[in-house]
Amino acid sequence: MARKRQDASALFGKATDVAAEIHHQDQVIEKKSERDRSQRTTFLLNRIEKRLQDTRPVKESHVKELVNSITALGLIEPLVVDQKGRLLAGAHRLAAISLLKETSSEVYEQQFPGNQIPVRMMPFDAEVDQQMALQVELAENEKRVNYSRDQIQQLAKRLRALDYRDTKGRPKQGEKALGPALAVAIGVSTRYVRRVLSEQSQISKGATGENRNLVPIFNRTKSLKRLETSLLAFLAIPKPESLTKQDASLEKAAIDLLSKIQKNMK
Amino acid sequence: MTQQRIAIAARKGGVGKTTIACGLASVMANQGKQVLVIDLDPQSNAAYVLGTNPTAPGTANLLSGESPEPLKAAPGLYVLPGGSDLVGYSIQSLDPEDLADVVKPLPYDVVIFDCPPGVEYLERLGVVAANSTLVCTDAHPLAVMGAGRVLNELSLRKQKERRGPQRWAIALSRIDLRRSMDQALDKQLAEAYPDIPRLMIRQDASLAWASAERIPLMDYEASCRGAKDLEKVAEWILNG
């Protein structure tokens, strides 16, 4: 005998109820993916919007230098954008990427497959929070990531593999100069790059140890100097005639430490 | 005229989204409009159904900032194929409003988004880009469940005043009123969603055959029952 069927509308009713329940889960998932999106690390080139206000005009010569460096090394420092993909910092880099796309699309494709440009996304909307936007732009202009000497060496190695040469003075036609290219890429002076590279070659030739430009020595000296300045400033503060026992002992310790530091720095 | 953008969504698979999307596109192109079907389905069925190459550059390229050439299926009827590129990370990480931004300036009177089953981020791209939406269901509780999820999301978007369609209707697909489930469906939807218009597309072999033979519906059989029903859907889209 055929089985007796349930009422069809009751079945549909159950389905709509379950849809409402699943809807809550859908919401949770959507929120999560929204969060994930705000932490994305690349952005489509043509979706990156120009800055609302340009505080610094784009220098064409700098853009050209950047094109060369991006051709060789890719984009080392990601552009900084807000949540909507508006550019906060990196107008020169963006201009260089666009120029690269126009002039040598093959290299562009290789460095930025699928038009995906590396970005660092800041968690605000520049239109709403203009003050923040300006701060990011200024901060980016002031401070650059400090590359360690090792990292600079690594970059130089990659450039040498791409036929960049450490030549002095102007490169001959067809030659590419390593120093300036690297300097532009990491935002330091050519002089600094050359110094780091020549140190390295001296070390590899066997010149040992006591080079004051080596990172640990340099950092140590810097910290000591800072300590000295702070201690001098501290001791220069006028003191009341009757010091408490604690203050007096601190004063003495400060003087001791200062003299030790000064001796050490000599 | 202002561009009409319609998303065809269901969440559930196999309820007739692509058939309705392509049939509707054929109907509206036949009315003299410039119509573009944007296939958001990784299975890339829309281009196939319309008799064009489903593996040509399409929606994924559009979303990656390129300008793929839509394929011509009939006078005034164009399609951008879907494809497996749509499941890539770069598409997944798009903002839901990204498709809306690239579609707006395209020179078409009507843009129809054929949303995929299951893949919510793709469906959302289409829905957010649309100004009206057809939520498809056939007479089965599983389809009603899928449609219910889409409807809930639509009303939440509107309530939060987010970008997306201002109006939507339920498209009852493959309906044969001789069956008891089909009879109950309309009644139940009217009860559960009293304020949402319901548009009925009756069971029609011509719809299935047009898809299978890869001929746009109005070129296949312009006077079939399915075409008549889809004309009513077009009427709702254009004139509410």
What does this structure look like?
The complex is a heterodimer of chains A (266) and B (240). Helices cover 59% and strands 7% of the residues of chain A. Chain A is an alpha/beta fold and 266 residues long. Chain A has three domains: 101 residues, no CATH class; 56 residues; 51 residues. Chain A has a four-stranded mixed beta sheet. The N and C termini of chain A lie far apart (107 Å). Chain B has 240 residues and is α/β, with parallel strands linked by helices. Chain B is built from eleven helices and eight strands. In chain B, helix 1 packs across helix 11. The chains are: A alpha/beta (266), B alpha/beta (240). At the A-B interface, helix 1 of A face helix 6, helix 7 and helix 8 of B.
Order of helices and strands of chain B: EHEHHEEHHEHEHEHEHHH
Percentage of residues in strands of chain A: 5-15%
Summed up, the helix count of chain A is: 10
Q: How many helices of chain B in DSSP terms?
A: 11
Helix-strand sequence of chain A: HEHEEHHEHHEEHHHH
Q: What is the averaged pLDDT score of chain A?
A: 82
Main sheet of chain A, how many strands, which sense, barrel?
4 strands, mixed
What are the low-pLDDT stretches of chain A, counting only 5+ consecutive residues below 50? none
Shape category of chain B: globular
- What CATH calls the topology of chain B is Rossmann fold
The overall number of domains of chain A is 3
Rough outline of chain A: flat
